[in-house]
Amino acid sequence: MNPTLLKTKILITVLTYPHPSTKYKELICTAGITVQGDWVRLYPIPLRYQDVRIHKYQWIEVDLEPVGHGNDNRKESRKPDLSTLWVLGDPIGCKDEWRERRQFIDRLPHHTYKQLEEQHELDKSSLGIIRPKEILDVTIEKADPEWKPEWQAALNQMSLFGPPTKPLEKLPFKWSYVFQCEDREQPYSRMIEDWELGALYLKERDSKGEEGAAKSVRDKYLSDIGSPKRDTRFFMGTRFPFNTWLVLGTFWPPKTTLELF
Q1: Which of 40, 63, 97, 233 is most solvent-facing, going by the fewest CB within 10 Å?
Q2: CA nearest to 261, candidates 149, 103, 130
Q3: Which residues lie below 8 Å from residue 196, measured CB to CB, with a gap of 6+?
Q4: How many CB atoms lie within 10 A of CB 31?
């Protein structure tokens, strides 16, 4: 047993669409909040190759290395000992207007985009929540339909010598939220990297084709997740090794007067 590892209980809130890795097969931004209410990013986790499957809003327990270990030096990033990973029960559901999920999320600090950037400058925070004043649009732009050569080579290598898994498809589009915050008139645009976005696109593509599936994703994230009837928040995070902020996931309970605390 490594005495430097710290056993940590985490509620998973973020899973992003996978991308290949020459070192770790595939990488997914896996993040959540501890029982103490602190953000933590688990890096690296090749999630599709794990025997233990993780879902959003599910409690897990895992031993983590202290900050500063490994290449990812972001404040909240911790390298997990995946041999110690345990799933603690089923994911938390959406009953009673998302009551149980909101008991954890509503307690966390909420920011504007400007405040999130200022917090990063202050203490290098690289995860946080934005509650937009208004969601204006979800834009679609075409992306490179192929992985970059070194990533494609890693995928080819895995298909020859690695364990069998479903091929990792490259999404040929990028979707971005256009939103306003209450402390700035000019809107922001930030790309969405949610795992569920990619899964929805691939599902819809089978029946609607690429363009139709791209529109279905836009409709879901704008008209449903981003509906004025919902109290939508964005789980934000920076892209390593850069400091570009991305929408890693969404939290979209119905607007309610329900008292939780």
Answers
A1: 97
A2: 103
A3: 249
A4: 24
Q: Among candidates 97, 65, 56, 77, which has minimal Cα distance to 196?
A: 56
Kindly report the average pLDDT of the chain as a whole number. 90
Nearest Cα to 183, choosing from 86, 123, 111, 125? 111
Of the candidates 222, 253, 252, 250, the one whose C-alpha atom is nearest the C-alpha of residue 235 is 250
Model confidence pTM above 0.85? yes
Contact 120, 126 (CB under 8 A): yes
Rounded Cα distance, 48 and 165, in Å: 8
CATH 2.40.50 in the chain, residues? 6-87
Helix-strand-coil percent breakdown of the chain, rounded to 5? 25, 35, 40
* 3-state DSSP assignment of residue 88: coil
Report CA-CA distances (Å) from 256 to 40, 95, 260. 29, 13, 11
Identify which of 117, 123, 69, 89 has the alpha carbon closest to the alpha carbon of residue 12. Answer: 89
Predicted local confidence at residue 1, as pLDDT: 53
The CATH number of 6-87 is 2.40.50
- Tell which phi-psi region holds residue 98, choosing left (phi > 0), alpha (psi between -120 and 50) or beta: left
Cα angle 79-152-68, degrees, rounded to a multiple of 5: 15
Classify the C-alpha dihedral 245-250-255-257 as positive or negative: negative
For 122, counting Cβ atoms within 10 Å of its Cβ (0-12 exposed, 13-18 middle, 19+ buried), the class is: exposed
Which residue(s) pair with 238 in the sheet?
Answer: 245
Spatial strand order in the sheet of 233-238: 110-111, 127-130, 233-238, 245-251
Neighbours of 233 (CB within 10 A): 20
